[in-house]
What we know:
Strand content of chain A: under 5%
Number of strands of chain B: 17
Number of strands of chain A: 1
Largest sheet of chain A: none
Number of helices of chain B: 13
Strand content of chain B: 15-25%
Low-confidence stretches of chain A: none
Distance between the termini of chain A: 55 Å
Structural class of chain A: mainly alpha
Radius of gyration of chain A: 21 Å
Strand order of the largest sheet of chain B: 1-14-13-17-15-16
Helix content of chain A: 55-70%
Largest interface: A-B, 46 and 74 residues
Number of helices of chain A: 16
CATH class of the largest domain in chain B: Alpha Beta
Number of domains of chain A: 2
Number of domains of chain B: 4
Helix content of chain B: 25-40%
Shape of chain B: globular
Largest sheet of chain B: 6 strands, mixed
CATH superfamily of the largest domain in chain B: NADH-ubiquinone oxidoreductase 51kDa subunit
Oligomer: heterotrimer
Low-confidence stretches of chain B: none
Mean pLDDT of chain A: 88
Mean pLDDT of chain B: 91
Shape of chain A: globular
CATH topology of the largest domain in chain B: Rossmann fold
Amino acid sequence: MSLLxxxxxxxxxxxxxxxxxxxxxxxxxxxxxxxxxxxxxxxAILLTLTAVVSCMAFEFIIQKYLIKGPMTVFDGSAxxxxxxxxxxxxxxxxxxxxxxxxxxxxxxGKMTFGGLGKNPFNPALVGRVFLLISFPVDMxxxxxxxxxxxNLVDVVSGPTPLAVIKxxxxxxxxxxxxxAEVPEYVQMLFGNMGGSIGEISALALLIGGIYMLIRKIITxxxxxxxxxxxxxxxxxxxxxxxEVYIDPVFxxxxxxxxxxxxxxxxxxVTSPMSYKGMIIFGIGCGxxxxxxxxxxxxxxxxxxxxxxxxxFVPLINTYVKPKRFGEVVKNG
Amino acid sequence: xxxxxxxxxxPPENKLSKDAAIVALEIPKSVSIPISQHxxxxxxxxxxxxxxxxxxxxxxxxxxxxxxxxxxxxxxxVSKIDEVIDTSGYKRKAVIIDVEGDxxxxxxxxxxxxxxxxxxxxEEIIKKVNEKGIVGMGGATFPSHVKLIVPKGKKAEVLIIxxxxxxxxxxxxxRVMLERAEEMLVGISIQxxxxxxxxxxxxxxxxxxxxxxxxxxxxxxxxxxxxxALKVKYPQGGxxxxxxxxxxxxxxxxxxxxxxxxxxxxxxxxxAVYEAVQKNKPLIERVVTVTGVNVAKPSxxxxxxxxxxxxxxxxxxxxxxxxxxxxxGGPMMGKALNNLEAxxxxxxxxxxxxxxxxxxxxxxxxxxxxxxxxTVCCMGLEPYFLAVLAEKNKVEDCESNRIMxxxxxxxxxxxxxxxxxxxDNMRVGKSKxxxxxRSRASN
Amino acid sequence: MNEITxxxxxxxxxxxxxxxxxxxxxxxxxxVIEDPRIDLVEEKLPGANCGGCGxxxxxxxxxxxxxxxxxxxxxCPPGGNAAxxxxxxxxxxxxxxxxxxxAVVRCNGSRENSPPKVKYEGAMTCQFAHSLxxxxxxxxxxxxxxxxxxxxxxxxxxxxxxxxGLPVILDDKCVACGACVKACPRNIIEMRKKGKKDxxxxxxxxxKEKGGPAKKNCAVACIGCxxxxxxxxxxxxxxxxxxxxxxxxxxxxxxKCVIVCPTNAIHELNFPPxxxxxxxxxxxxx
Lengths: 332, 443, 286
């Protein structure tokens, strides 16, 4: 008999592990990925692949030569960052740009702070916002979705539904007139609209989100608080003046809302720890998104809203504590 | 079905020995009986080297209020009073007795007759429980007579009997409920009399339907005793969790269950109280589950206190070749043994053997802040945060974040996907906060 | 100059002036008059804030010295006598010479001398391991080897030897602040006199068990045989609880006890190699 092991209790361990969680997220992203491949064709596949490979490569290099810690490339988190970064850019983006985006996402967004678990901001969003500010034209040229094509050049581009509304309202046109220029809701639900690679199909993202809920990778608190506050905030505005403000359902299914609420905001590392904190975080994200969308300069505000709320997470964690046993004594 | 509300986990139950009837284990050639088998002040030995002792004779006296008497579990000669290596590898003082026959103290009633009537006053009952060295049999080994004395100004309303056995693998309480229910219920009514309460609730998790049915049937003949089936969730056997589950009251932070009018005892303790009060039998033997996935014969033994663990393993079919860890107690709260010759004590509820593959922790990662530890914490604490505070020696912050509420149930470490040693660090933090509180109290 | 510029200059200028006036009065109101000597004393201290003096940091020591108007009972282990002399000059006081000290690890239970009997898993801190069990080597007094002392050392004067699993103290870096002594849950590390030419003799074991059990866990344990006590002509060694202890104030570094120890538990440091003696034909171990 070899040496007995001595350790503190407990002596049984759950089957949860970091890589299981990460690969669970990756699996849940598959439906949205397939939709994006269908609508944007080969260019989407190439972009996603490039982002994943370069994210992993940057993590490997930094881990090996700068941090010199245990190798974490295959725990799956770099793959998620890569996929999410690719999901957040238009399919016409040049490949070298996404490589730069990956470097920023992994290097600046994650490894600077000490790797997975230490980063205050969602790495994919850090990369995306960096690209958006550095290459505004390339990042806002949205190819029109077509059926699967291997065509890499000569794509027809057009504005996203959100941009149509934003520019139209700014030009003083009523919403009812602008609605004719955007696809129908059912079309948008399936993803047939202009936009970033992964954000287009709310339905596919919802399927993935439900899978994550079942696997207990995420809890309902952040998505429900996020989407709910967008719904309520948008609803109030719509109620006030439906000719200037578009209805809340439109806000929910367009832009990066679903992707943000289900995947970006729920990122474990950069969201609050307690349920109460998660709800506050979700509401904050929702209100900020709507403020940026309706009153801000950008047509889309999901990434900025989540990044701003990420910065509040330590504060939320400090002041919002879980409900403690024996704190509120109700006898009877 | 009732259960507690905050936190909790569902580790695989693995109750392998639930159908194995309790078998009396052969008395070993020599026993070593530690003088400290309970929480509180160690007992003082009152026998000398070379003294002849009978089974059930008092050999060490618990002189302080929170202490317990120790009795000889065998008859024979005291060969020495020396230090023996205990489960953790540290030396503890023990009385070592060489066994000669099995001659019992005359006053002990060894017949199997059920003695229902108890005409003693509450004070006499408590005195007897104290004399016979009864301690909590669930594992915490808190002297039972202390729990039967209601402090001044407080009122006990209900006696809660813990038949939950929420720890995976363990089946000793389950078997007691099946085989000794009648005696146990008499013990419960004695405890009720001592406390002056009219009501007792036996909480049993519904993974033991046979026990629920059996105890329910017999309890129908006893006034005021009810059986409540509970939803399976660990750590339902925790005192505070069980009170919450059964009578929906929360024991305030840092207070005892009596604050909400409840007193909690284990089913094993109820049986021991019956034997002590009605049969004059001190706590000299207990039911120990010996189990594990590779154990040849998962069993429940009636073991004399002081028997070496190795004798139990032998009787259960020997130690499997690939054993990597031996645990004293349940898998969630038990202590890993580093020495198989350590004696069985009053708190040993089980001996578990884990194969090598199952005895290692998960590989260590950074904390990914998933918050699962918060979700499962049955006291509503933040284990990830407390562990870091303890690691960084922030003792006062640990205290203000209520580290002392932690009941060390182990759910956080069980669930953590990153394999962080959360509970290990929190234990260090707790002991430091304890030191701080003591130094404050002495100033 | 257009109007907007003018208004800005006037309004911002007046706000600034107002703020400056308020600041001036607030500063006057809350002014703290401090003894200027505290700063002078603090300058002479190393500024490591190690806590070796027993106070919260260098500033706290400086304040305490100035307040006491005396250097008695104060010492700065990292600064040593030089720092205290400097402070004495500043304050016009007399500093007492104190012997330089150094941390000494009194355990030699390496993996070879005390082979592991069990495997430990969990938080790699001595604090926790100490509360959990007696240690992988089995000795309830010996070094656990998880390096709480190394973590505590603010001067990089310690490291864990990978091979032996024991901490090693670097003589030239150790300032005797005592952080490691406090960090060790088993009180293995002791502050001892640095000794002439850094030479030291000490019993590298603190096991209070009887000879048999002690030897069972570790080949180089002190078994309390008392040979060294008999050998010492200066009454520097006492035997208590089966454990020999060398009083460093009485020890004359004669090295006689080192040779007689049957388990090699007494260590000598920084001595020149011994001349090979040919008594009884067996050379003494060096």
